[in-house]
Sequence to fold (197 residues):
Amino acid sequence: MDLSHLPPREQKKYSARLEEDFAEFERLREQVRPWVPTGVPLWPGTDFGPMTASIQGEVGPLLLDHPWILLMRRESLEHLQKEGLQGLKGCRTELRFRTKNPPELLEMELLPRGRFHAECLPERSPPCPKCERVSLQHPKEPVLDAATLPKDVDVFRLEDSAGMILGTERFVDAVRHLGYSDDLLFRELPVRAASPY
Fold:
């Protein structure tokens, strides 16, 4: 989440630190909630501000810095939007490059949407009573719940597993059509409707 619109003194209040007083964490969390998209959880450890890092080497059109962080060159994002993909939003970064003419890389805002189908999940433990985080083991053979999948975005995070990035068939086709898939691996996941019983 980018808080650069706030004065520097205000930004400092939300900088990364270990907040041992949970009541203070809750107070700070509620102060930033108005700037967070609806439905996005603000758990302990949530990062604020533009992504910062040093980048070495050549960067392709799309980059998975970690399996849960999707970066795109600005022109790649614009081409994908021209292909008709929905819900693509890039956020500025403060990445440092060692080249003279570095590309502009944007971190994609990937909202939590969609869930695993209940039949593929191992036993769930109840959420943490304080922070509401749910401890969920990733299923060995993930199956998606058709009723929970979004119709208005083409790339998103799975609600049950924030580290899992999902793209629609339309997203995968557009990425391949534009030649952006060289360094990416796509895996098709089965989708199942809820059981009528």
